[in-house]
User: Fold these one by one.
Assistant:
Number 1:
Amino acid sequence: MSTVVFNFHCKTQSQGRIRIRKGNAPEPFIGTTPRITKLMALALKFEKLIQDGDVTDYADLARLGHVTRARITQIMGLLNLASDIQEDILFLPQTTKGRGLSAREILKMGAIVDWQEQRKVWERYKTFVAK
């Protein structure tokens, strides 16, 4: 008599069906990257594409991304933030529930020309959201 060892886990699918899957169960959900972090990374990537000459302008980016030029302009407005704020945004912790920081509010901060004023707004905003 021999023993067979087989790893499996159960997965609930749509309509409540339970399926047996081979292998170990996937890691539990720990959170997602905040949307504003993804947008900040995208703005930096777009800027590099323009600097390298891979695309000529925002209109090219809009065509390639199937979005409006206005949306590209909004995303690129994140580059007007102070560099330390950009870094903070890139290293925000993953969110486990809720929407996290509002992209709309942070995009508004990019319209503030004075970086010291941006930093004051950023600190107040981080304090408010942390509560």
Note: The longest strand covers residues 8-12.
Number 2:
Amino acid sequence: MAEEERVEPTLEAGAAPAAAASASTESAEPLPKKSNKKLFIILGVVVVVLAGGVGGYMYTQKTEAEKKAAEAEANKPENILKKQLTDRKQNAPPIYIALDEMIVNLPGRGGEHYLQTKIVLRTADSSTESKVKQFMPVVRDKIITVLSSRQMQELATVEGKTMMAREIALVINSIIAPQLTAIYILQQQPATADLQNLERIGAIPKETSTGKKITNEAARAAAEFWNVTEMDLPVQAVLFSSFVMQ
């Protein structure tokens, strides 16, 4: 009986470590599951980031390609003219651009004379003013050339002033819209406004976008479409707010 009493504590003591080991094993089992879950989350985030980066790059490349294609199409001579003519045919209220005062010498009988004048440009396009300012040194030089080429007796008549005003408008338009003005000039001289001249200045494309030469019927239709009047030009008229000759 005494031996049995000594054995029982030994068995109980041996069972305790086994139970502790079992409990320790059970508590350690969920750890790999948590680690796997974190790994999946990290991998998912990486995949999303990579997919977003690739998608963003492809979208940017597509947008840039579309932008370049649109710019190339808009810069075609016929499309530039079409936009200009469309903008000018909207019957927008006139916009007036005042230029600085100009004083020039005038040739005439009885010695030298001078003209002191202020010019106002009439336009229907808000962008014309910025174009005129951009080329202002050239514009002023050409205007002075036109003004000083007239004699005092010529400018004393209404007809003389009107003709000079039209010439000034034409000179300014040839600077800020040379292609459109060239078409206008050609159309004022029907004998020279043929298809070859219109093709030369780019009013009518020689070929289609596929490289095929356009038909004569299509060329004639395009020539009719590009019918430009004074009101289609950037500067529609030149007005004088002051005009003094001595």
Note: Residues 80-245 form one domain.
Number 3:
Amino acid sequence: MKKHLLSFLFLAGALGTQAQNCSDIFISEYVEGTGNNKALGIYNPTMSPINLNGQYRLLRYNNGTSAAAGEANAQAMINLGNHVIPPATEWVIVIDMRDPLGTGQNVQADPALQAKADTFLCPDYNTSYSMFFNGNDALSIQKTTDGGTTWNYIDIFGMIGDPAMVTGVSWSDQFPYDGSVGAWWTLNHTLIRKPAVEQGVKVNPSPEFIVTTEWDSFPVNTFDSLKVHTCNCPTGAGINEIDNSVSVRLFPNPVVNNHFIVVSSESMSTIEVYNMVGQQVIRKETNRTAKQWMVETGDLPKGVYSVRISFSGGKTKTTELIIQ
């Protein structure tokens, strides 16, 4: 009896911690492409709709601007309006550049990117430039619960007030992560939040923003992953309690040679791969005793996929796969 009680208390504590993490919106995707191909995915990790209801705003901190300077500039921020984000849903913001005759700073955003938008923001740079970000700009989502007197960080992308970005152009993937060494990630890339991320960054990173910690990198002008996000937060009755009882690893991930291997702590029965619009593109049946299985990806196009593994005991787990 004592053993069962301790197990219950441990499970309740774990679920309580997750519920605390999966409690508010965060930036799930960042598109910094050519021209005006600028977009953000905002994910609702909860099991209830979130009404933005004028309580959330997006801010841009231009070229290493400090919080004090950036948040004093009305053009750097925009209210996210009264939209409702359904549970376990990625809401997509695209810069409002839809004029096919636009030139220079007003050049049209790619129609394929426009098609992903749930809302468009910032049509005029001189009114609000929060969506005109590039590789050396930090962003934040803030929330108020007192009508706008006090604003709290819900998520921070980049590092607010990073002196390296005053002259730098992008955060990179190697120490000191300021773009001086390694590959640039926040310029001319799409970044997707890792599935293990269950809440936003609420404290400004210091001494530097290490982009690889929470983000996966994709080539410039990658749009197909918008509107779908994989997150470990629960999405319905009991789903994540089942998922968390099984350990699964995919490697290599990203896939580079047309195959990947699934390693599990329990015997697997089927492995299914789904594309970003929910179509099943691969289904493999194992021998039902295997805890390791190779899956050929063939000529699947580059992008982000969901892999759903079913186990012999009736459990399931879904995780993210990247094909490069």
Note: Residues 239-323 form a domain with the Immunoglobulin-like fold (CATH 2.60.40.1220).
Number 4:
Amino acid sequence: MSTAPLEAAASELDVHRAVASVDDPEYPSISIVDLGLLERLEIDADGAVTIGLVPTFTGCPALAVIAEDVERAVGSVPGVHSVTVDWLTSPLWSIDRVSDDARRALAERFTVAVQIGRDPVNCPRCGEPTIEQSMFGPSRCRSVHRCPTCSETVEVMRG
């Protein structure tokens, strides 16, 4: 008869919290969950966890870093015995997946605005409309605008 204590199974809430503790490498203090990357979370009876993430775009240079951070965070949850991160090809990520909290944090901390559809983009500093300077920003999902009112350069996340 074994006297070893039974290990509790990992809870979905604990695993979700672990994933939510992972920040986007480009935006420290903004969770990948708030940026809309988490699509699926599965835990089997043996403590194997599979996390399905949606990349902002397939060529994003941060994908490997994000996957490693998720594996480390989820792997530290009691009851988790293995972690697999899958980058999903469907659904496609869109800017609509970004939470309101993340939109506010992007504007306040990083001067990044979020563009929905073709709506005008307002400056995160002064609130006035911006002018697109380049539809090509530092990554495929961003463009560069300038605010004619306060002269701020604004990165714009688009999807």
Note: Confidence is low (pLDDT under 50) at residues 1-6.
